[in-house]
Specification:
The longest helix is centred in the middle third of the chain and has 28 residues, at 99-126. The protein has 2 domains: 6-60, no CATH class; 69-211, Zincin-like. The two termini are 28 Å apart. The strands form 3 sheets. The chain has a 4-stranded mixed sheet, with helices on one face. A 3-stranded mixed sheet has the order 1-3-2, covered by helices on one side. A 3-stranded mixed sheet has the order 8-10-9, with helices on one face. By secondary structure, it is of the alpha/beta class. The chain is built from 6 helices and 10 strands; from the N terminus they run E-E-E-H-H-E-E-E-E-H-E-E-E-H-H-H. The structure holds zinc ion.
């Protein structure tokens, strides 16, 4: 059996919940007064699930070591050591220390350029009127659209393929016309990207990427 560290967070809630974050930390949320033994039994009963999640996470974890390939905004680079983060000659340079944080800042810059360009492209082509584009650190979703028309995208969209990033831009633009996931909304998405169902399916398998950086 694999060993793992469990953090218990107690709060005014009624039920127990279990999650595994990008650091491989197992977090149990529990009601304030629940006995430790009950929490332990809960973790024990979900041991298989925890081990499967930890293994899946290790498979999804981006490799930032020297020589590893990494796809950023649809181009594959080879990671190499450099004094600061930069891209040159097919290589993505990262300093020796603090690679995750440096990479996150680079992804944020690249996501901004990419998502702004995609939003502009589709807004012009399909006459969408939308507000500003924001890049966020949100982990739960790739993108969102506010009632004022501000489109927000996770900086981790920089790790997706061109087709996946296009779908996310179009999805949020379509929310400026339909603030829901109604049949009319999906019809609008399908009019612009007839293949969108395939891309949605791909993205469901990529959701673990949101746990990193
Ligand atoms: Zn949506």
């Amino acid at each position: 059996m694999q060993r793992f560290h469990v953090t218990v967070v107690r709060s005014r809630r009624r039920t127990l919940s279990l999650s595994v974050n990008g650091n491989g930390e197992v977090v149990v949320r529990a009601p304030e007064r629940m006995r430790d033994a009950q929490i332990e039994a809960f973790v024990h009963a979900h041991r298989d699930w925890i081990e499967r999640r930890l293994a899946a996470l290790e498979r999804a974890r981006p490799d930032l070591s020297d020589g590893a390939p990494i796809a950023v905004c649809g181009t594959v680079y080879t990671i190499a050591m450099g004094e600061r983060a930069r891209i040159a000659g097919g290589r993505l340079f990262l300093p020796e220390q603090g690679r995750e944080g440096v990479m996150a800042a680079l992804l944020r810059r690249m996501a901004r350029v990419r998502m702004s360009a995609l939003v502009k492209e589709y807004a012009a082509r399909y006459a969408f009127s939308c507000g500003a584009v924001r890049i966020t650190s949100a982990r739960g979703r790739w993108g969102s659209c506010s009632s004022s028309g501000t489109l927000s995208f996770s900086f981790r969209t920089a790790l997706l393929t061109d087709g996946q990033a296009r779908y996310i831009a179009v999805h949020e633009l379509c929310h400026t016309r339909h603030m829901n996931h109604s049949a009319a909304f999906w019809k609008e998405v399908g009019r612009i990207l007839p293949d969108y169902a395939k891309t949605r399916k791909e993205l469901r398998k990529m959701s673990d990427l949101m746990l990193f950086f």
